[in-house]
């Protein structure tokens, strides 16, 4: 378990000012005593709105909004868990059902919360228009910070909610988004294909047995489906590994264990099928061996435009926080708290640190960001991002001496204590180098001395692991990049500068790609420029990242893959048709176009035209599209139905149109 609270020295920094954090999520169980126990202006959860109502789900997208953002019906209590990470106070709980096994504070326990409900009880869908409306409503309600732990990563950020977030941040509201939990799905990650371990009735005889299932982010079904199917097949228990808290079955004991424990059980049973395992229902603190390193589920950038995502990291693995009483009952926990993992947890953690920062500077209002403000002004979000990025803490890949790729950790682990006490700032605070064919010859960084003493700064370079996401002979990206100790060469001029208080100086950087990198595989190189203040030994960091090779050569559609699932056209016997082959179609058999994507594209779509380049009059010209979904997506099977009047004995062409990089059509 990772505690959500910072040490007391952080809390002591916080002034009396209270910042308001809007949580856009499943709603909040504000009746939880650790979250104040009430809703309204005098409560911890002081404002909010329900945009959708209880019955909103995938099959019913007709919202029924109301003024009450209470979530007392979702089995995950996701928004309540997020809210607790930001601002819970679970230090003096005496009410039955709400006593944590370890007292804790949220990151910013003095913050006020707003709850904006964009999911119904099912928690299975949230629409972009609702998310966009929630962002603007939170802005209108005077939120200082907005946090959204919704959805996964995408290689492009052009949706209406992303645009809304940009607009409100320009008006002085700070906003944090999760980047997704698809770290096992390779570069430019987006929701993956959907494994179904346990999503169908067991094929083995499980009568009287405890069934052990694997879990992966993006799975086709959840724990309730798996465990209930196991119960129906006669199982006496259900265990799921590689996941945190679960809903499980209402008829048989259910539980979750770590990936390591799950694999250990499998190894033991393989050697000794009659082995007996004993579990206890006691709770306690346990060390997390991976603490302080990127979680395996952390999604990996960069964006489709080779821009920075993620920008910074927060604590997101094994985080203990609040859940609703309803969720606690469904999860069979004795108290309304749970340990969960994900960027959904890291995002409110960072939001909480922003709340601490605002409280420290007296929480000037968002309106003071304007250029007309002279004193007690709120720094722009851009300046705060610069401050937090340059004072973050770069971390290593677990159990190695390699710095984790900037494409995975961004600027590093957020360090609000150093950000608040920073005596150095830099601009820009990150360098997106593009690919090596389009990389600038040099980059200029401005270093600011924020301290009250003259300081000498020493500038040096630390390379991060080279991330290679392809293998020779395959178009498809690897599920896990190959990391290696191959670093860029950086020329720094000058390597030492002296700055008086309040003054700034310039440094120039020139980058040379890693010597052993294979440009054909388009690996991501990255690292950090370290600027050390010799007065107090504080180190400011500038993360950089780029791609070796010509990014225009990145394959969007998979033609070669070891899985043999590639882009192409199948005949009625599910056999690929070659480029030179002419297939005779009949009235009963159609054809299938399979699209398998690798690197990201803003959009891929299929059209059918006649052999004479005329659009078929009685058929829809578009048969499907893929929007912003890079690699590891399942094959998209598009059945092209035949129309007897228009298609009999006609030849057809199928056009695949891809929106590629650098705003070109290919």
CATH superfamily of the largest domain: Peptidase S8/S53 domain
Radius of gyration over C-alpha positions, nearest whole angstrom: 27 Å
Uncertain regions: pLDDT < 50 for 5+ in a row? 1-5, 181-186, 190-195, 616-623, 632-636, 641-666
Structural class comes to alpha/beta
- Domain module tally: 4
Binned, the helix content reads 10-25%
Main sheet strand line-up: 2-5-1-6-7
Number of strands: 29
If you average the pLDDT, what whole number results? Answer: 83
Architecture overview:
The chain is of the alpha/beta class and 666 residues long. The chain is built from twelve helices and 29 strands. It has a five-stranded parallel sheet, with helices on both faces. Helix 2 runs parallel beside helix 8 (343-360) and helix 3 (128-140) runs parallel beside helix 4 (160-170). The longest helix has 18 residues, at 343-360. The model is unreliable at 1-5, 181-186, 190-195, 616-623, 632-636 and 641-666 (pLDDT under 50).
């Amino acid at each position: 378990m990772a505690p959500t609270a910072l040490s007391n020295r952080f809390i002591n920094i916080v002034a009396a000012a209270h910042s308001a954090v809007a949580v856009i999520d499943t709603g909040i169980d504000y009746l939880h005593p650790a979250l104040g126990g009430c809703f309204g202006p005098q409560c911890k959860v002081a404002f909010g709105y329900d945009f959708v109502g209880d019955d909103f789900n995938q099959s019913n997208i007709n919202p029924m909004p109301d003024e009450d953002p209470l979530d007392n019906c979702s089995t995950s209590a996701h928004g309540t868990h997020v809210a607790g990470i930001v601002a819970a106070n679970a230090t003096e709980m005496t009410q039955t059902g709400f006593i944590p096994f370890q007292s804790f504070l949220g990151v910013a326990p003095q913050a006020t919360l707003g709850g904006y409900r964009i999911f119904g009880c099912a928690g299975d869908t949230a629409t972009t228009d609702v998310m966009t409306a929630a962002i603007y409503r939170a802005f209108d309600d005077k939120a200082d910070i907005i946090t959204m732990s919704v959805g996964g990563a995408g290689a492009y950020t052009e949706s209406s909610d992303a645009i809304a977030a940009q607009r409100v941040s320009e008006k002085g509201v700070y906003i944090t988004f999760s980047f997704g939990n698809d770290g096992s799905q390779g570069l430019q990650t987006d929701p993956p294909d959907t494994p179904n371990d346990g999503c169908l009735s067991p094929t083995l005889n499980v009568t009287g047995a405890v069934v052990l299932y694997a879990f992966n982010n993006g799975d086709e079904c959840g724990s309730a489906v798996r465990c209930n199917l196991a119960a129906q097949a006669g199982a006496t228990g259900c265990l799921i590994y590689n996941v945190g808290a679960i809903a499980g079955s209402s008829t048989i004991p259910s539980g979750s264990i770590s990936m390591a424990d799950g694999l250990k059980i499998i190894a033991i049973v393989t050697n000794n099928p009659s082995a007996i395992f004993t579990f206890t229902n006691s709770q306690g603190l346990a060390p997390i061996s991976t603490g302080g390193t990127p979680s395996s589920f952390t999604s990996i950038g960069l964006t489709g435009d080779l821009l920075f995502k993620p920008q910074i990291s927060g604590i997101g693995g094994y985080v203990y926080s609040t859940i609703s009483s309803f969720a606690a009952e469904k999860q069979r926990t004795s108290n309304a708290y749970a340990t969960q993992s994900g960027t959904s947890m890291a995002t409110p953690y960072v939001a909480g640190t922003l709340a601490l920062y605002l409280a420290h500077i007296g929480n000037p209002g968002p309106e003071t960001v304007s250029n007309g403000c002279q004193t007690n002004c709120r720094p722009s979000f851009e300046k705060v991002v610069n401050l937090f990025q340059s004072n973050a803490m770069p971390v290593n890949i677990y159990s190695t001496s390699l710095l984790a790729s900037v494409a995975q950790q961004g600027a590093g682990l957020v360090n609000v204590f150093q950000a608040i006490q920073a005596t150095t700032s830099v601009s820009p605070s990150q360098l997106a180098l593009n690919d090596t064919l389009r990389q600038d010859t040099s980059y200029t960084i401005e270093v600011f001395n924020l301290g009250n003493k003259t300081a000498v700064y020493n500038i040096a370079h630390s390379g991060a692991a080279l991330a290679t996401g392809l293998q020779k002979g395959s178009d498809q990206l690897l599920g896990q990049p190959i990391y290696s100790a191959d670093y860029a060469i950086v020329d720094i001029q000058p390597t030492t500068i002296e700055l008086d208080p309040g003054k700034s100086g310039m440094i120039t950087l020139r980058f040379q790609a890693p010597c052993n990198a294979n440009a054909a595989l388009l690996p991501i190189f990255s690292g950090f420029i370290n600027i050390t203040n010799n007065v107090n030994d504080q180190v400011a960091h500038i993360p950089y990242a780029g791609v070796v090779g010509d990014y225009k050569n990145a394959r969007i559609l998979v033609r070669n893959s070891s899985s043999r699932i590639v882009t192409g056209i199948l005949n009625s016997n599910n056999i690929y048709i070659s480029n030179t082959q002419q297939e005779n179609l009949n009235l009963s058999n159609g054809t299938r176009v399979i699209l398998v994507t690798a690197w990201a594209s803003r959009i891929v779509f299929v059209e059918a035209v006649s052999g004479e380049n005329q659009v078929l009059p009685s058929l829809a010209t578009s048969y499907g599209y893929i929007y912003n979904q890079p690699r590891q997506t399942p094959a998209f099977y598009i059945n092209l139905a035949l129309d007897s009047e228009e298609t009999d004995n006609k030849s057809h062409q199928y056009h695949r149109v891809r929106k590629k990089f650098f705003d070109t059509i290919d």
